[in-house]
């Protein structure tokens, strides 16, 4: 099973949308709230240099990007390959 990590925050519609896609596919993921935990915010910034928005998603330590990038992978049929 893939290791999926989602850096998110409260009241973020893009975070909700991305997590909904993952749940719809029956995937489990770890979620880190960067609005409540500044250490996680710093960790996200280190892992995804230049990324200032949430969510930031990682699959097997590979940076997907945000919600739009996750949905783009799914629409191109590439997300399942990332999950292998």
What is the fold's blueprint, element by element?
Blueprint: E1 4-8, H1 13-24, E2 30-33, H2 38-47, E3 56-59, E4 62-65, H3 67-75, H4 79-82
Parallel strand pairs: 1-2
Antiparallel strand pairs: 1-3, 3-4
Brief descriptors of the model:
84 residues; alpha+beta; Glutaredoxin; four-stranded mixed sheet; 4 helices; 4 strands; 42% helix; 20% strand; globular
Write a structural description.
The protein has 84 residues and is of the alpha+beta class. It has one domain: Glutaredoxin, CATH 3.40.30.10. Helices cover 42% and strands 20% of the residues. The protein is built from 4 helices and 4 strands, in the order βαβαββαα. The chain has helices spanning 13-24, 38-47, 67-75, 79-82, and strands at residues 4-8, 30-33, 56-59, 62-65. The chain has a 4-stranded mixed β-sheet, with helices on both faces. The longest helix is centred in the first third of the chain and has 12 residues, at 13-24. The protein is globular and about 35 Å long. The N and C termini lie close together (7 Å). The model has no long low-confidence stretch (mean pLDDT 96).
TL;DR?
The protein is 42% helix and 20% strand.
Element-level helix/strand string: EHEHEEHH
- Which architecture name does CATH use? 3-Layer(aba) Sandwich
- CA radius of gyration is 12 Å
Our measurement of the CA-to-CA distance between the termini, rounded to an integer number of angstroms, reads 7 Å
Shape: globular
CATH superfamily: Glutaredoxin
Mean pLDDT: 96
- Regions with little confidence, pLDDT below 50 for 5+ residues: none
Q: The biggest beta sheet, please?
A: 4 strands, mixed
Helix percent band: 40-55%
Query: What's the CATH class, please?
Result: Alpha Beta
User: What percent of residues are in strands?
Assistant: 15-25%
CATH level-3 fold name:
Glutaredoxin
Number of structurally distinct domains = 1
Number of strands: 4
Number of helices: 4
Helix/strand/pairing category: alpha+beta
In order across it, which strands form the biggest sheet? 2-1-3-4
